[in-house]
Amino acid sequence: MPYSERANYLADADLGVSTHLEHLETAFSFRTRILDYLWAGLPIVSTAGDSFAEIIASSGAGIVVPERDVDALTRAMDSLLFTAAGLGAAQAAKKLGSTFHWVTVAQPLVAYCLSVTPAADRPVLGRAIPTRFVRPSWLSGKIRGARTMWRNGGIRAVTRRLSGK
Predict the structure, then answer these.
(1) Domain of residue 72, CATH code
(2) 3-state secondary structure (DSSP) of residue 30
(3) pTM above the 0.70 mark?
(4) Which has fewest Cβ within 10 Å: 10, 101, 107, 121?
(5) Would you say residue 59 lies in a domain?
(6) What is the pLDDT of residues 52-79, one digit of tens each?
């Protein structure tokens, strides 16, 4: 399906299902399709083994089943589709979904950026700056020359000089 139409499919769906095998990759994965299910307020059936499985189970947004257990998968799907458990899970999924909005998940990063302090190894006045941080003298001369050209002739003088004319 085209990406632009996925919202239509999710709006028509009754259940979100995410199955995978337990594997090293599974333990570190972040399944974005589950974010889509949460956005749509769908109850979720997921196999165990990833971080979302724990979140789904603890929030009541769905049912987590063991990998390769077809009977457990079938029972979970039946439960969420044909009993009141599905309605409760859908409400929990919608509520859980709101915790994954950008305005919420970006807060720790924004707070960090607003409270940044200089690094302990940052040069301070009166202390020598390591030579690897000093701009080469030839570059300083080029920058001074470009500034002078800019002041005297504007952008045309600078571009003429850069183009070799």
Answers:
(1) 3.40.50.2000
(2) coil
(3) no
(4) 121
(5) yes
(6) 999 999 999 999 999 999 999 999 999 9
